[in-house]
Amino acid sequence: SQTIHQWPATLVQPVGSPLSLECTVEGTSNPNLYWYRQAAGRGLQLLFYSVGIGQISSEVPQNLSASRPQDRQFILSSKKLLLSDSGFYLCAWRDQAWNNEQFFGPGTRLTVL
Amino acid sequence: AQKITQTQPGMFVQEKEAVTLDCTYDTSDQSYGLFWYKQPSSGEMIFLIYQGSYDEQNATEGRYSLNFQKARKSANLVISASQLGDSAMYFCAMREKGQTGANNLFFGTGTRLTVIP
Q1: Which of A19, A25, A28 is CA-nearest to residue A6?
Q2: Distance between A10 CA and the closest CA of chain B, angstroms
Q3: Looking at CA atoms only, how far is residue B82 from chain A in angstroms?
Q4: Which end of chain A has fewer CB atoms within 10 angstroms, the N or the C?
Q5: Alpha carbon distance A4, A35 (integer Å)
Q6: A4-18 CB burial, b ≥16 within 10 A, e <16
């Protein structure tokens, strides 16, 4: 069966510090991978998606970046965090078939102080 | 324009009663899929139910059913026999087949359901 992992689960970082959130998927190959951000009490905002290794598409211009160094690894990064980067970050994967549901990881709660 | 609209920020339902969560969508594609997710306070997103645009029957999964009215572009979630554990945020989402290769989901803003004992 497939599983998706995210770490860390929670993170408190000062403004201006770097960020690295990791997401890994097990039990599948060549998945589509996604990073979402959810502000408190709000819906999900798609940040990045990837259809393959090294292929990253950005949905929202900002100080965040994403990388996919391996087939089942998706990393969200920032060189300098802003207060507005606080939120709940969710990684998701799905198979290539267009009508398959996305499966979400447990999320990382980021607080920027 | 919003692809997915959920007009109910919050809903209350008595335990064991049924509740309908509204969702309308906007698309010009003929092929699309509609999804409902549940997000409890722990934050995880749990897939509940899927309806394809060409499916003639309303989707059902246990106590969840999707009231699909294609002409009205609505995909309401019906939860029967509500349980206390159903208290959560519920998100409606859509994927259009005509999108880019990643076929991303568009999410609504969610409805917070509270089940009252």
Answers
A1: A25
A2: 12
A3: 23
A4: N
A5: 13
A6: bebeeeebebeeeee
